[in-house]
């Protein structure tokens, strides 16, 4: 480690910023309204401040003194930190030498080798402050990290954290049990968005009210049913990402990609409940037992499902089982396979020239399966068929049997949105061959309808035969 992170107590420090450059003004803007005293010195500082849009901030600001004149040695008196943001090397060297002789903390802006401290990338949410540094080695990475964390922590978190600090004692009286109290705070911070645009007083009242309700008939357990999306981790929602990073236990199945799982907290327990080839898996009842057991043990449980958790995912049964145990459930939606695949193949699913409806269907042709092909055969329909690989011949025959044109375009997309995505095209008639000749495996989605001809691949020569078939 080359640098040591510390947080300075703002009211006990006084910063000197030397220079009338935009870099110097950026430092002024960074520290304005933090409670720290700032003296800005340099010829042309008034003009530079107004060019940086700071005029309103500095007028009448008791914590900031702007001295529009050259630096003098006495400017260093009573200051603890110095930032140098000048354009001429002679002044830079002079201020640096004088400050170093006095053993002060000096930062020559954008010149870490000359500085004895650096300013981290940072952002704040009320009393919560987050600062990052790579010791100057990877600034771009640090910027990316900051922006992803900024997105994870909603702005309303600041007001909530300040309010929580004020009512902490009352909450302890209302919820004396430590585990329940921790869960109460967890849930509160999860829902920070609820407190957006409220003033702190109102938030304090609501937090106390929530604690009262939490005490009455409170349950310990909580489960989030989270949509993992079709595979590309960039397609996770911010809320799903946050849930993954907070979960103590993640119960996941086969469709959840490794890339998504790798976003879980390092010490989280990952429990696989899918079926592997030739194995039975724990079964739906087994999944309920695990969810209930972990939630009642006071752990934060994420039930992670591929795509959207409410589409073809047996969420209803899990919700019933959890509600029976009075376990708090939250649903975090995900991008379903049809959406991810429509995006990667660039198929406008309800393109008005071709389609006025989109139907999501399971192609699972066992027990209680959908066999009413007549209902799916109307004009101008787009069908997205999940779990339809094995049943492709029956789906093809069923739809053609109900009068759907045999040259209706079809896309078959395997491992949609993942690095190993494969896309194939054909017609309703050739669908079974497309699946068997390319040895398409699950997970794969079938898209059927005239909109498929808008797919980006269909401009390519290799799909000429399909285009001909479609226009025949
Ligand atoms: C049990 S369903 C789950 C659907 C999921 N809840 C959703 O909203 O996408 C499983 C089926 O979804 C489709 N599927 C899920 N992820 C997919 C992917 N990455 N590529 C292609 N099809 C996918 C396949 O048809 C697969 O057989």
- Report the principal-axis shape: elongated
Report on the biggest sheet.
5 strands, parallel
Instruction: Please give the CATH architecture of the largest domain.
Output: 2-Layer Sandwich
β content, as a range? 15-25%
Number of domains: 4
Radius of gyration: 30 Å
Q: Which class do the helix and strand fractions yield?
A: alpha/beta
Terminal-residue CA separation: 69 Å
What does this structure look like?
With 472 residues, this protein is of the alpha/beta class. The chain folds into 4 domains: 10-119, NAD(P)-binding Rossmann-like Domain (Rossmann fold); 156-215; 222-334, Cobalt-precorrin-4 Transmethylase, domain 1 (3-Layer(aba) Sandwich), CATH 3.40.1010.10; 338-471, Methyltransferase, Cobalt-precorrin-4 Transmethylase, Domain 2, CATH 3.30.950. Helix content is 35%, strand content 18%. It contains 16 helices and 17 strands. The chain has helices at 22-31, 45-51, 55-58, 89-101, 139-152, 156-174, 178-190, 200-215, 238-246, 258-261, 283-296, 315-324, 337-345, 392-401, 431-437, 464-471, and strands spanning 14-18, 37-41, 64-67, 81-84, 105-108, 121-125, 128-132, 222-227, 249-252, 269-272, 300-305, 328-332, 357-362, 381-386, 409-414, 422-427, 444-448. The protein has a 5-stranded parallel β-sheet, sandwiched between helices. Strands 10-9-11-8-12 form a 5-stranded parallel β-sheet, sandwiched between helices. Strands 13-14-17-15-16 form a 5-stranded mixed β-sheet, with helices on both faces. Helix 6 packs across helix 8 (200-215) and helix 11 packs across helix 12 (315-324). The mean pLDDT is 89. Residues 230-231, 255, 305-308, 311-313, 336-337, 386-387, 413, 415-418, 442-445 line the site of S-adenosylmethionine.
């Amino acid at each position: 480690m080359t640098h040591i992170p510390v947080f300075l107590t703002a009211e006990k420090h006084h910063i000197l910023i030397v220079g009338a450059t935009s870099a110097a003004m950026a430092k002024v803007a960074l520290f304005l309204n933090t409670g720290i005293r700032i003296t800005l010195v340099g010829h042309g500082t008034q003009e530079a401040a107004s060019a940086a849009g700071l005029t309103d901030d500095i007028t009448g600001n008791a914590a900031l003194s702007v001295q529009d004149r050259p630096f003098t040695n006495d400017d260093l008196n009573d200051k603890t930190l110095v930032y140098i943001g000048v354009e001429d090397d002679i002044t830079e060297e002079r201020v640096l030498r004088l400050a170093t002789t006095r053993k002060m903390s000096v930062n020559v802006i954008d010149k870490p080798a000359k500085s004895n401290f650096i300013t981290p990338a940072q952002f704040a949410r009320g009393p919560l402050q987050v600062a990052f540094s790579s010791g100057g080695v990877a600034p771009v990475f640090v910027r990316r990290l900051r922006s992803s964390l900024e997105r994870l922590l909603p702005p309303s978190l600041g007001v909530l954290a300040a309010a929580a600090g004020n009512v902490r004692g009352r909450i302890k009286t209302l919820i004396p049990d430590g585990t329940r109290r921790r869960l109460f705070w967890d849930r509160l911070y999860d829902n920070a968005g609820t407190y957006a645009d409220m003033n702190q007083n109102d938030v304090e009242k609501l937090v106390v009210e929530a604690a009262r309700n939490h005490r009455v008939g409170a349950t310990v357990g909580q489960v989030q049913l989270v949509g993992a999306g079709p595979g590309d981790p960039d397609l996770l929602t911010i809320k799903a990402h946050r849930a993954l990073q907070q979960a103590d236990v993640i119960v996941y199945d086969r469709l959840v990609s490794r890339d998504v799982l790798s976003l879980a907290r390092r010490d989280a327990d990952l429990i696989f409940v899918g079926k592997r080839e030739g194995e039975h898996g724990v079964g739906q009842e087994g999944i309920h037992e695990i969810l209930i057991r972990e939630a009642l043990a006071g752990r934060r449980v994420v039930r992670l499902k591929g795509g959207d958790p409410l589409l073809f995912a047996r969420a209803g049964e899990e919700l019933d089982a959890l509600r029976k145990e009075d376990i708090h459930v939250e649903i975090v939606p995900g991008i379903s396979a049809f959406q991810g695949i429509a995006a990667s193949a660039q198929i406008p699913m309800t393109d008005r020239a071709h389609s006025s409806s989109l139907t999501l269907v399971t192609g699972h042709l066992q027990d209680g399966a959908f066999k009413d092909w007549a209902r799916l055969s109307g004009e101008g329909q787009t069908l997205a068929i999940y779990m339809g690989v094995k049943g492709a011949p029956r789906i093809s025959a069923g739809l053609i049997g109900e009068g759907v044109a045999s040259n209706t375009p079809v896309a078959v997309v395997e491992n949609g949105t993942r690095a190993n995505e494969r896309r194939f095209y054909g017609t309703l008639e050739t669908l079974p061959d497309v699946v068997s000749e390319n040895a398409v495996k699950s997970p794969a989605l079938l898209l059927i309808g005239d909109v498929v001809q808008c797919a980006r691949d269909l401009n390519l020569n290799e799909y000429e035969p399909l285009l001909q078939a479609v226009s025949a």
